[in-house]
Amino acid sequence: MSTVPAAAQVLAILRYLAAQAGPVPAAAISRDVQLPRSTTYHLLDTLAREGFVVHLPEERRYGLGVSAFELGSGYSRQAPFQRLARVPLAKLVDRTGHNAHLAVLHGREVIYVIEERAPGRAPLVTEVGVRLPAHLTASGRAVLARLPQAQVRALFPDASAFVMRNESGPGSPSALRNLLVEVRRRGYSTEDGEVTPGFASVAAAVLDHTAHPIAGVAVTFPAEDVGPEEQQEIAQQVARTAAEVSRRVGGVTDPARVPGHGTPTR
Q: Where is this region: Disordered (predicted)?
């Protein structure tokens, strides 16, 4: 399918503005998005007329407008990500016989947005809307392992950034760094008793079209009921599901094939 150049340019501008801390000059947009200045101004004028961009004349800068906010609000209302992920998670529960969930990173925490409970399995702490420390959860570790290392350092700059639930888990930036190296090596993350005593989890990251992690898919099970071989099988099923959700949202299913994304940047 061919790309419409003007549409691609408009989307590039909107994505760029969304990533900035505040309004920016048109010259910066032109430079960073790699568009001719005349094209940049024409597109900004059109976006401003439609409310997607606002021009601040005194500052000579451009920022996102109300229409862009309405788009984001519509996404939240429709919850397409959760809708796309629910069926793969339900199938994951069927294949493993254990509870599965989907969590997204929010600062140093993960927020659980889907929980699929296996028949006969007890409810867990990972109910929808619950927040937990990202560095203690398998879902959070799966996402953190795929982030640029500079971003992880910004989130966890020193020991004061770490909290414990059961007196276990990484308690320093170096300990977290070593743990995430192991997650990247294996291709999935684990936790055992660090969230709830007696329960363990395995997780893998869902990636967007740039191989950026947008969520973690995890399965949680009673630790004493699952041996090493079965845990490995569950991990494979989790990775398979994470790849399927990535595919459904138009993301990367094999990050090793994306230049520059095999290992998070320093």
A: 240-266
Please, are residues 99 and 201 in contact by the beta-carbon 8 Å criterion?
no
Question: Are the C-beta atoms of 136 and 169 separated by less than 8 Å?
Answer: yes
pTM check: above 0.90: no
What sign has the CA pseudo-torsion 218, 117, 127, 76?
A: positive
pLDDT for position 255: 58
The Cα-based distances of 258 to 83, 108, 212 in angstroms read 27, 27, 11
Pick 79-257's CATH classification: 3.40.30.10, 3.30.450.40, 3.40.50.150, 3.20.20.80.
3.30.450.40
Pair 89, 114: CB distance under 8 Å: yes
- Assess whether pLDDT exceeds 90 at residue 76: no
Show Cβ contacts of residue 167 under 8 Å, excluding neighbours closer than 6 positions.
none
